[in-house]
Specification:
- The chain is α+β, with helices and mostly antiparallel strands.
- Among the domains are: about 160 residues, no CATH class; about 90 residues, no CATH class; about 80 residues.
- The chain has 16 helices and 20 strands.
- Strands 10, 11, 12, 13, 14, 15, 18, 19 and 20 form a nine-stranded antiparallel sheet that branches. The protein has a five-stranded antiparallel sheet with strand order 5-9-6-7-8, sandwiched between helices. The chain has a four-stranded parallel sheet with strand order 3-2-1-4, with no helix packed on it.
- Helix 1 crosses helix 7 and helix 8 packs across helix 12.
- The termini are far apart.
């Protein structure tokens, strides 16, 4: 991708394309049209984005266009489309319109919950510039696929963009489906070209890290099936005789759900054989629930993947670096987090502390930028994150690059909420978040609060509880609790929480207090 501007002037206002003249999905013509849209986005970003008073429209498609078999094992997955409601904060810009599409209608109480926090504009003013559209479809298809099945809805989305407004699409992740939708809507996407998605696979991540000169766990990539897994596990043990565990990862797994743990038990490199490994594979610990070895292997063979050594250590952390490459080719380190991982193998993302530990936040940010610059040279665009496993040895931290998530993720919405609410920003040089008055802020966030006792609580109930117990975010003190995934609470007892405080201890205090209140209310 070139970041040079063409010499001719371009019309950066949205001009709807007549319906029914779309190239076939995945065709050379569709790809050509998509690249042209993306090139025009460079002009929009340069000339329109910096002006907060410019007429703009943002179409938000919070589709999780990922492996549906794994997604469907996550309770309340449809409600994960609510995570990008943090982008309603864009309405603080008084000439910006937001069009938000979901699978099912979101409770208006939840929308009001976000709009009342907007600084500088009234809720009424913001609501006039907000269009909420629904597919009215609870099926297991991704949201993008549902929209593509509804040409009249696509036309309605296009008509929701006011004349003369510069428009673009923002998504959770971008695949060939989002490319097709972008072309049919005639709008660019602030995200990565699907032709580059391999970079965000487990194998592609390792190749990129190697090119960028980052430390990685010993391992092997581009594995195609059981024989490759066996050979890789055997070779790893020969290279690392003391190795206790290895991780088998599908290329397109996410949140640990495509991983499995292989144990070498008390064996040595001399006693391990390929036959023994092949037999032990039947007993690997698969992270995704209800996925047996046969199913795991079938999916692995389809996705392909990697095998790498499990990093061990008495003092271990899982920092993550959030990065952005804008259409002008500029690389920004947006934030760092310490991920909270759970499950009996410590592979499942539960939440995060922000920012990452002061022991290494600046260093992992530097490593993230090092990898991002290589990605920029390949044409990557938009937000993504880079995960590390860090271990402390002899008083020094070693950071092993693990994977690139070429999409938004579980740390995107908590940080955006903090940024929008406070007007502050993360300083990659200090590893701290500063507000305009130079005060610091921290948070503890989780997507995974779940309690049987909270089933039946509605959005009305939750907001009343937060206000009555004085835990709701207070714009005066710039501390408190913000909720997301609110729609999942009544049916699943599930909720997302962002606890903001003036210190890490204050953020933790808000979290513990919120947990106690919700569990107590649920028992009443």
């Amino acid at each position: 991708m070139s970041y040079l501007f063409p010499s001719e002037e371009r019309n950066i206002g949205f001009v709807p394309k007549p319906a029914g003249r779309y190239p076939p999905p995945g065709s050379p013509e569709e790809i050509r049209q998509f690249k042209e849209l993306q090139l025009n986005f460079v002009h929009q970003f340069r000339d329109i984005f910096p002006d907060k008073m410019a007429p703009k429209a943002v179409v938000i498609i919070p589709s999780l266009t990922l492996d549906q078999e794994i997604l469907n094992k996550i309770e309340g997955i449809n409600y994960y489309e609510e995570r990008l409601l943090c982008l309603l904060m864009l309405l603080r810009m008084p000439r910006t319109h937001v069009i938000y599409i979901t699978s099912v209608t979101i409770d208006p109480v939840i929308i009001d919950y976000y709009l009342h926090l907007l600084p500088g504009v009234t809720g009424y003013h913001a609501r006039q510039r907000l269009t909420m559209l629904s597919c009215a479809d609870v099926s297991h298809l991704s949201l993008t696929e549902k929209i593509l099945e509804r040409p009249l809805l696509i036309e309605r989305i296009k008509k929701s963009v006011p004349p003369g407004h510069a428009a673009h699409i923002t998504c959770f992740n971008v695949t060939d489906k989002e490319r097709t939708l972008a072309v049919r809507m005639g709008m660019p996407v602030y995200g990565c070209d699907p032709d580059l998605l391999y970079i965000g696979t487990k194998s592609g991540s390792r190749l990129l890290f190697r090119k960028a000169g980052l430390l990685m766990p010993p391992g092997f990539e581009n594995l195609t099936g059981e024989n490759d897994i066996v050979e890789s596990l055997f070779a790893l043990k020969q290279q690392e005789p003391a190795l206790k565990r290895a991780v088998i990862k599908m290329n397109d797994g996410f949140s640990g759900e495509g991983n499995a743990i292989f144990s070498y038990e008390e064996t040595t490199s001399q006693t391990v054989s390929r036959e023994w490994i092949r037999e032990q594979l039947r007993h690997i610990h698969i992270i995704a629930p209800d996925l047996n070895y046969r199913s795991f292997l079938k999916k692995f063979t389809r996705m392909q993947g990697i095998v790498e050594a499990a990093i061990e250590g008495d003092v271990k952390a899982s920092p993550s670096v959030q990065c952005r490459i804008n259409p002008l080719g500029q690389v920004d380190i947006i934030s760092t987090h310490d991920q909270l991982l759970g499950g009996d193998a410590g592979q499942v993302f539960l939440g995060a502390n922000f920012p990452a530990s002061s022991d290494y936040a600046v260093e992992v940010g530097r490593l993230g930028k090092q990898a991002s610059e290589e990605m920029r040279n390949l044409g990557v665009l938009g937000r993504f994150s880079i995960d590390f496993i860090s271990v402390k040895e002899n008083g020094l931290w070693k950071h092993f690059a693990i994977e690139i998530n070429l999409r938004k993720g579980g740390t995107t919405h908590p940080y955006l909420m903090l940024q929008f609410l406070t007007g502050g920003s993360y300083n990659a040089g200090t590893g701290e978040f500063e507000m305009p008055d130079k005060k610091k802020r921290y948070y503890l966030a989780s997507d995974n609060f779940s309690s049987e006792n909270c089933k039946g609580l509605t959005a009305h109930d939750l907001i009343d509880i937060a206000i009555s117990h004085e835990i709701h975010y207070n714009s005066t003190t710039e501390e408190g609790v913000m909720f997301h995934l609110i729609g999942a609470l009544s049916q699943y007892g599930k909720l997302g929480i962002v606890c903001i405080g003036e210190s890490p201890d204050r953020a933790t205090l808000f979290y513990k207090r919120t947990m106690d209140i919700l569990k107590q209310i649920g028992n009443e």
